[in-house]
């Protein structure tokens, strides 16, 4: 029926405890910061938001440097860093 009845966790912390019909997540991967928002898709209300430093920063200060790094046989390491953090 599309209703979430269990808790939703983020980094071992409960962020949603009440039943929500449809939940969506927006992820903005910026050069320095990754921002995330969880939305109740029925009401449009923001349920939770969080941001953290982009872990890709240690591999280049700009997007072009990071693409260059990732293209040099690094097995998609930069994408895996983001997925691990999320």
TrEMBL record:
Superkingdom in the source lineage: Bacteria
Any coiled-coil regions, as ranges: none
Pfam family, one: Raco_middle
InterPro entries in alphabetical order: Raco-like_middle (IPR041414), Raco-like_middle_sf (IPR042259)
Residue ranges of domain RACo-like middle region in the record: 24-86
Protein name per its UniProtKB record: RACo-like middle region domain-containing protein
């Amino acid at each position: 029926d599309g209703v979430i009845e269990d808790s939703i966790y983020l980094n071992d912390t409960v962020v949603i405890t009440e039943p929500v019909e449809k939940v969506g997540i927006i992820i903005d991967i910026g050069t320095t910061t990754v921002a995330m928002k969880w939305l109740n898709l029925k009401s449009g209300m923001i349920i939770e938001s969080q941001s953290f430093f982009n872990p890709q920063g240690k591999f280049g200060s700009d997007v072009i440097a990071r693409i260059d790094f990732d293209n040099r046989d690094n097995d998609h390491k930069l994408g895996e860093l983001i997925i691990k953090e999320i």
